[in-house]
Amino acid sequence: MEHTNVPDPVIKVEDLTIGYGEKVIMRNLNFSVQKGDAFIIMGGSGCGKSTLLKSIIGLQQPLSGKVRYGKTSFWDAEPSEQLSIMRRFGVLYQGGALWSSLTLAENVALPLEMYTNLSAQQIKDIVSLKLALVGLSGYEEFYPAEISGGMRKRAGLARAMALDPDILFFDEPSAGLDPLSAKLLDDLILQLCDTLGATVVMVTHELASIFAVGNNSVFLDREAKTMIAAGDPKQLLRQSNDKRVIEFLTRGEKAAGSASL
Amino acid sequence: MAGKRMALGMPAHPSREKLKFDYPAKETLRLHISGDWQTSLGTPPLSEIISRINERPGITQIAFDTAQLEKWDSSLAALLLKLERECEEKNIRVFYEGLPQGVQKLLALARKVHEKEWIPPKAQEPFLGRVGSAAIKVKDELKAFLDFLGELMVSFVRLLGGKAYVRKGDFLAIVQSCGAEAFGLVSLISILLGLILAFVGAMQLKMFGAQIFVADIVGIAMVRVMGAIMTGIIMTGRTGASFAAELGIMQTNEEIDALRTMGIPPVDFLVLPRVIALILMMPLLTLYANLMGILGGYIIGVGMLELNGIEYFNRTQEAISINNLWVGLVHSIVFGVIIAVSGCFRGMRCGRSAAAVGESTTAAVVTGITSIVIATAIITYICQLLGV
Questions:
Q1: In B, which residues are within 8 Å of A98 by CB distance?
Q2: I need a labelling partner for B32 at 20 to 30 A (CA). Which of A19, A140, A231, A261 fits?
Q3: Counting beta carbons within 10 angstroms of the beta carbon of residue A1, is it exposed (0 to 12), middle (13 to 18) or buried (19 or more)?
Q4: How many domains does chain B fold into?
Q5: Which comes out higher in pLDDT, residue B148 or B48?
């Protein structure tokens, strides 16, 4: 693919303001994601993490500012150009967002049918491989409603990886999973991205995932309406002076001195 | 309520047993709380305590004695919390030491949440403001609808160019569910409609001895409008609603977002096959409904009016001109577009909650049926002008 020579950073967010109508949720967002990063977007519930993700993956137009992929500004680009950018990434949605009228195999196959000229047999082979990678071989003919929430997420991961994307986006991957399944999913994400050489952008508030997966991050704060910290989460934990960041990263056990229950 | 309590063998005024007062000092009111304080048993009203406070103007302190208290739950804490807020206003100090540890902790917890997550009360918009926002919303809806129609057109053009991504399997499944599977309902309703039309007509025509014209009434009415309208209304409730609900739930599950980020236009993938399937199926269902309606008329004509079967058949054939059939089919195609478009539009505009899915389904049916009636009026007028 021609984009492999695109110079760093892979994604650059410039002066982004996001919100709905006149209501601004976040402003002055500036950060960049480098190739090979495992980038975390973190912050408390309802602070606008998912809205930010939507602006980055092209689902919701920001109020102002730019999201650059390589040199192209996504929201200023022609629809065909937007499409070719979108083709380079995979998204795992919060609940998996599998198409409920299609079987798991058809779910994974759809992007392949859409964008490649592979024969039916070749597609079938790739689909089995992707499902096997996420531990779901044998479930090809199941419908999303027939499997558990954790399996749905893994199937969603298989679909997100169908076209071997350069960038993988995750929206709260561990939400609704027990700690063990969440860890297994994190491990799986790390392994797969490592093998595929993909860049990861993950929205999460799950501390375990933040420290296990992330090597770079931004921290959004609802009251400040902007990012209040950026960098490797482990370093943030050691070095940040910001009470809000430390409180978040330690579940309120340090610097907070609250709640005597 | 009181009767029920009596029947259960409880005192009519539990409060008297549970709450007693005394004044250990001139400025202190002490509450003796005793017995069971449980939500299911009810608690004495706050006003009882307030009236005690007001009885003696000098009171500045409240204390508790709970030595006789047995079981308690959050109903006690709720009462105390209300009392506490009341006392704050009256500048009365409350001494909690007399309360059980658990109650004190519960109160502390309730106060804490209250401080931290305090949200300003939502301002109620004035009447004119609400009218204004409603008007703006209508404009936004209209714009969204035109956007949707435009997108659908573009998508249709793509389909003609062979570029739209429509899965054959999906399309056939939709055709089956909105065509073949609707047969039962359409048969039932249409036969009954035929019966009703024939029956009402027969009552009048019998007076003139012109029973045979029942065939005309039923035949023309069914073929020209009634068949199409009844099918349209059935399909709005059956298929329009299901389109809206399906797409609405897909919106809630982020399935539509997933299509978008995959670069698959949701209109191609979800809306186009539904619209085309319904436009193809509506005329067929209408033809079938016409037939069933005429059959219903036949049953009344032959069974009740004792007309000759062959004669009834011939009369029907003579009465229905080919124009009637065309007018009926035009109705049905227009209704097909209306039902599919309003169902899909409402589904695609659905918010992300269970309530929103319900709302969009309702809206799809209301829009569908209203538009069908309006469209019928317009088509009838046009036919009048054209003299068809």
A1: 255, 258
A2: A261
A3: exposed
A4: 2
A5: B148
